[in-house]
Design brief:
The chain is mainly β. The protein has seven helices and 16 strands. Strand 1 and strand 2 form a beta hairpin.
Length: 473
């Protein structure tokens, strides 16, 4: 792992790159045909897995198989990437970052006869540079969905009880919201897929979303295989206010805060033709809303009613009670190859989210894209896609920029929007190992904010080239 003093230096990158290359070569060297044996129940083990390309299915002593038969499963996902900003943004340089995720699941029905009771925990070992937005772009939208400060961090740890023959479940513990709420079935193909910019910029510490988590409870009801209703209550601030950024306030995911004003989110889901045996086009719709019970600062006015930019005003933001959001997610398969599943062929997706403009920097967010998967007979596991992410700066935040121009006489840039484009190709080396070249163009990074070089010049549009490797075991 790179030290903090090595961030962005060639000397800091080379050892990490050499280790990643050696690991990749070793996997290729031992990737001989697996010894035939029964595969263990998958549980939380990611699929597909490189274990199928390793001797003895990556389980030479059958320890994993023995544990899985008793309800104990585990898995690992190692993601590494090189990202280079070749134009605009904050800096032109190349960085390396990585995330090793470990996960553990326990089915207490198998282990102890407690039917319907499950345990799950996962954690991250984050290494390399802090990430492309911090070092290269300075944007609002996600550039890399593994971006985080280097550390070892607990993510989720919870118990879940299935009820009414699996038609309902209650989950309690330390949770995240971005695995079940406001999620697109198809968007996770892209390295820019993440918790949307709205609500990320509107909830304290960004909300319970990667890389942060917080105590909470979630109820899920499945009246039919096609429909679900979810409701969750989280502690409203995963990190709290410590004078630093949120990830430093809760550096290892061990704060377990429970006294902050709560964050409540609910979602209705409907999906169709998801079964592998289905022949119709797959898809789904999600509609949701959230409310946060904290108090939030007005984006333009101070407590005395004057503009925050007015030198005669108090400069103390007017506080507003609560914050809200509504959103919708749409996934649709346009073409399903003969014998293909719901994640093959041609697929489109879109997510939209809105929050009040008086208390949110980003009041409207929209993303969308298209993916082509499994269409090349010679490389059926490969996929290609294009997407966009759009974050609109609220009218009150923009009005504050106009006020600042008026009172200072400095023609600072006016914030308006950030728009990102993402092109990706995912190539499967062996099952469970993909390599993904990527191109991103970011227009108006940060929403068209002043650059460090000049208060009247905005941060320039950025172009980022990337290469990601993902191994699942």
């Amino acid at each position: 792992m790179l030290g903090r003093g090595e961030v962005g230096t060639t000397q800091g990158r080379r050892p990490a790159l050499r280790r990643a290359m050696r690991a990749s070569l070793l996997l290729l060297a031992i990737g001989s045909p697996a010894i035939a044996q029964d595969a263990p129940p998958p549980g939380v083990a990611p699929q597909p897995t490189i274990a199928t390309s390793l001797p003895a299915n990556g389980d030479p002593f059958r320890t994993r198989h023995w544990l899985a038969e008793r309800g104990v499963t585990f898995g690992f996902i190692h993601t590494t990437e090189l990202l280079s900003n070749v134009k605009g943004g904050l800096a032109r340089k190349t960085i390396f970052d990585g995330k090793l995720e470990a996960m553990l699941g326990i089915d207490f029905g198998r282990l102890a006869g407690l039917d319907g009771l499950n345990f799950y925990a996962n954690g991250f070992q984050l290494h390399g540079n802090p990430g492309p937005n911090r070092m290269l772009v300075g944007g609002l939208n996600t550039v890399s969905n593994i971006e985080a400060l280097p550390t070892t961090r607990l993510s989720e740890i919870w118990l879940e009880q299935q009820l009414f023959d699996g038609k309902a479940s209650i989950r309690a513990g330390q949770l995240v919201s971005d695995t079940e709420f406001l999620v697109s079935q198809y968007f996770n193909f892209f390295i820019s897929s993440d918790w949307p910019t709205n609500p990320k910029t509107g909830i304290p510490s960004g909300g319970p979303a990667y890389p942060l988590s917080t105590p909470g409870i979630r109820l899920k009801i499945d009246p039919s295989p096609q429909a679900s209703a979810l409701l969750a209550v989280f502690n409203g601030d995963p990190a709290g206010q410590c004078g630093f950024e949120a990830e430093q306030c809760n550096r290892h995911g061990l704060n377990f805060r429970v006294k902050d004003p709560p964050y409540v989110v609910g979602e209705l889901q409907y999906r169709y033709n998801q079964d592998a045996a289905a022949t119709g086009l797959a898809g789904g719709v999600r509609l949701g809303a959230w409310h946060h019970f904290d108090r939030f600062e007005h984006q333009r006015f101070a407590s005395d009613g004057l503009s925050l930019a007015d030198p005669l005003g108090s400069g103390i933001p007017h506080r507003l009670r609560g914050n809200d959001g509504i959103y919708a997610v749409f996934d649709q398969q346009l073409y399903r190859p003969p014998g293909g599943d719901a994640n093959s062929g041609v697929m489109v997706f879109s997510r939209a989210a809105y929050s009040p403009p008086d208390r949110n920097v980003v009041d409207f967010y929209l993303d969308g894209g298209i993916i082509f998967a499994g269409l090349n007979p010679s490389r059926p596991a490969d996929a290609f896609g294009a997407s966009f992410l759009y974050a609109h700066i609220s009218k009150h935040a923009r009005a504050l920029d106009l006020d600042t121009r008026l009172f200072t006489g400095v023609p600072i840039p006016l914030r308006d929007y950030e728009l990102s484009f993402d092109l990706s190709y995912s190539a499967t080396i062996v099952p469970g190992w993909t390599v993904q070249p990527n191109l991103q163009v970011i227009l108006h990074p940060g929403g068209h904010v002043p650059s460090a070089a000049s208060p009247i010049e905005p941060v320039r549009n950025a172009v980022v080239l990337g290469l990601r490797s993902t191994m699942r075991y």
